[in-house]
């Protein structure tokens, strides 16, 4: 495939760098430090297993799900891949 002035693998290098930056940004947004024993929104107890699994957890599962829905979080990629758009 012709890539102009870009060297072999330059596109993959750029994709890898973009993914790496996104992962680092997401990790910086994760809570750190000791988690709470009770939810900061509804005061429900946060189970010890959740506190061990997610360091710095501040919300119970129900409040976290509501928070994710409010912020438009979706683990499903609705944009599709570039490859599927070219077909």
Order of helices and strands: HHHH
Instruction: Specify the overall morphology.
Output: elongated
Task: Please tally the helical runs, counting DSSP H or I stretches of 4 or more residues.
Answer: 4
> First CA to last CA: what distance?
17 Å
- Cα gyration radius (Å): 19 Å
Which residues sit in consecutive blocks of at least 5 with pLDDT less than 50? none
Strand % is under 5%
| Oligomerization | single chain
Characterize the biggest β-sheet: none
Helix content: 40-55%
Report the strand count.
Answer: 0
Query: Which class best fits the helix and strand makeup?
Result: mainly alpha
Query: Average pLDDT across residues?
Result: 81
Protein name: DksA/TraR family C4-type zinc finger protein
Zinc finger (dksA C4-type): 39-63
Organism: Pseudoxanthomonas kaohsiungensis
Domain Zinc finger DksA/TraR C4-type: 37-69
What's the quick description here?
Keywords: Metal-binding, Zinc, Zinc-finger. By secondary structure, the protein is mainly α. Helix content is about 45%, strand content about 0%.
Describe the fold and architecture.
This protein is mainly α and 87 residues long. 47% of the residues lie in helices and 0% in strands. It is built from four helices and no strands. It has helices at residues 10-29, 48-53, 61-70, 82-86. The two termini are 17 Å apart.
